[in-house]
UniProtKB/TrEMBL annotation:
Superkingdom, natural source: Eukaryota
Cited PANTHER family: 2-OXOISOVALERATE DEHYDROGENASE SUBUNIT ALPHA, MITOCHONDRIAL
Top-level class of the enzyme under EC nomenclature: oxidoreductase
Protein name: 2-oxoisovalerate dehydrogenase subunit alpha
Keywords attached to this entry: Coiled coil, Metal-binding, Mitochondrion, Oxidoreductase, Potassium, Thiamine pyrophosphate, Transit peptide
TM helices/strands, residue ranges: none
GO MF entries: branched-chain 2-oxo acid dehydrogenase activity; metal ion binding
Dehydrogenase E1 component domain boundaries: 90-395
Catalysis performed (reactions): N(6)-[(R)-lipoyl]-L-lysyl-[protein] + 3-methyl-2-oxobutanoate + H(+) = N(6)-[(R)-S(8)-2-methylpropanoyldihydrolipoyl]-L-lysyl-[protein] + CO2
Length: 443
């Protein structure tokens, strides 16, 4: 038998324990319930009855503050100062203002693509505010608020959107595909739901890391996705991996009512996404995604639960409403009534709900609101202008970051490109790239 590599003993221990626990199950004589790995403690019955969805009431939705900003959970008391609350509100406000500016910029042809997160700001900002900065995060594409709350700067947002030389991704990704190694946030990828099994794998790695070094800091993986992504096979694989391997991970689903143009009623027949978590043996809660306090309380508790007993998965389904179009490539009024959207904007959204709570508490008013909006808009537009004028990354970077050193064929391709650009200088806008053609010269 091949010897295992050094440092893999904890992994063997985890697997061995699961084998022993499964092998210890047996059906005792005259037992009144099933004792089988797939259905523990299932009592026998002589009544032939199929379970139906309408036999169960829908899972409840936890909320702390109602749409009028009134506290409905008598046990709740804010765990942060008024100044900290204001900071969270401004983070949400920042995202809502940036979304409007960048959406218009795309319509003006100054940006190739954009996705807004209107109506969903509380889920990202609220969850980020109670997680540890070293927790590993996998976002989808409506978590701008998470990036903002965790420390992503206005310049970083704009540099990524305009793919300039200051973009940490070196201009290789579509707009809104943010990422930050320093903030422990993996870069957003376009394929739907691929981040889910990746996050489960990361959580398993964190579990093994803790087993190998008990003194290391306990961390969890956190992954965001929409209810549409939950229709992908990756969703089911990810939940099953996390459940069977007892991975310290928090799944956060934004159920915003639509998967591009497909409403939830056409996506599934079960009780939302939360019911699926229970089906996989995962501790689950459904929260009001428009209530930042409910999101904070649920995420804070979920993280603590995920670290219990060496690790386990937890699922949060946050009920929101996608006020915006799916993206700048979508016209949502082709499949839903404009009055429906306007009603949600007016009746209930995360910003107005938190603002009402703050005003009732006396830490916010109309003057502060006007000043904040003015200041944030100026900040965003300033960074917008600077990023738009900044040069693109050097042309030579297209050959880098795959191999530690350029291979001979890449060196040859690089030289061919330089020769072509020098031969036809007026056919290409090489001046917009940092260093121009000179960046292609051999070093």
């Amino acid at each position: 038998m091949r010897r295992l590599a050094a440092g893999t003993k904890p992994c063997v221990s985890v697997i061995s324990n699961s084998i022993r626990s499964a092998g210890s199950l047996s059906q005792r004589p005259n037992s009144n319930f099933v004792s089988f790995p797939g259905a523990l403690k299932s009592s026998f019955t002589s009544s032939l009855k199929f379970e139906t969805p309408d036999s169960y009431t829908a899972l409840q939705t936890y909320r702390v503050v109602d749409q009028d900003g009134q506290i409905v959970d008598p046990s709740f008391s804010p765990d942060i100062s008024d100044e900290a609350v204001i900071k969270l509100y401004k983070d949400m406000l920042f995202i809502s203002i940036m979304d409007l500016i960048m959406f218009d910029a795309q319509r003006q042809g100054r940006l190739s693509f954009y996705m807004v997160s209107a109506g969903e700001e509380a889920v990202s900002v609220g969850s980020s505010s109670v997680l540890d900065r070293e927790d590993v995060v996998f976002c989808q594409y409506r978590e701008q608020g998470f990036f903002k709350e965790r420390g992503f700067t206005t310049e970083q947002f704009m540099s990524q959107l305009f793919a300039n030389k200051k973009d940490s991704g070196r201009g290789r990704n579509m707009p809104v595909h943010y990422g930050s190694k320093e903030l422990n946030m993996h870069t957003v990828s376009s394929p739907l739901a691929t981040q889910l099994p990746q996050a489960s794998g990361a959580a398993y790695a964190l579990k093994l890391q803790k087993l190998q070094d008990p003194s290391s800091k306990p961390r969890v993986a956190v992954v965001f996705f929409g209810e549409g992504a939950a229709s992908e096979g990756d969703f089911h694989a990810a939940l099953n991996i996390a459940a069977t391997r007892s991975c310290p991970i928090v799944f956060i689903c934004r159920n915003n009512g639509f998967a591009i143009s497909t409403p939830t009623l056409d996506q599934y027949r079960g009780d939302g996404i939360a019911s699926r978590g229970i089906g996989y043996g995962i501790d689950t809660i459904r929260v009001d995604g428009n209530d930042i306090w409910a999101v904070r309380e649920a995420t804070k508790k979920a993280r603590a639960m995920a670290l219990e007993g060496g690790g386990k998965p937890v699922l949060i389904e946050a009920m929101t409403y996608r006020v915006s179009h799916h993206s700048t490539s979508d016209d949502s009024f082709a499949y839903r009534a404009r009055v429906e959207v306007e009603d949600w904007k007016r009746r209930d959204n995360p910003l107005t709900r938190l603002r009402k709570w703050m005003e009732a508490k006396g830490c916010w008013d109309e003057t502060k609101e006007k000043d904040a909006r003015t200041d944030l808009r100026k900040e965003i537009l300033k960074a917008f202008g600077e990023a738009e004028r900044e040069k693109k990354p050097p042309i030579a970077t297209m050959f880098e970051d795959i191999y530690e050193e350029l291979t001979e064929d890449l060196k040859d391709q690089k030289e061919q490109l330089r020769t072509m650009l020098e031969k036809y200088p007026e056919e290409y806008d090489v001046g917009s790239f940092d260093g121009g053609i000179d960046s292609l010269k051999a070093k």
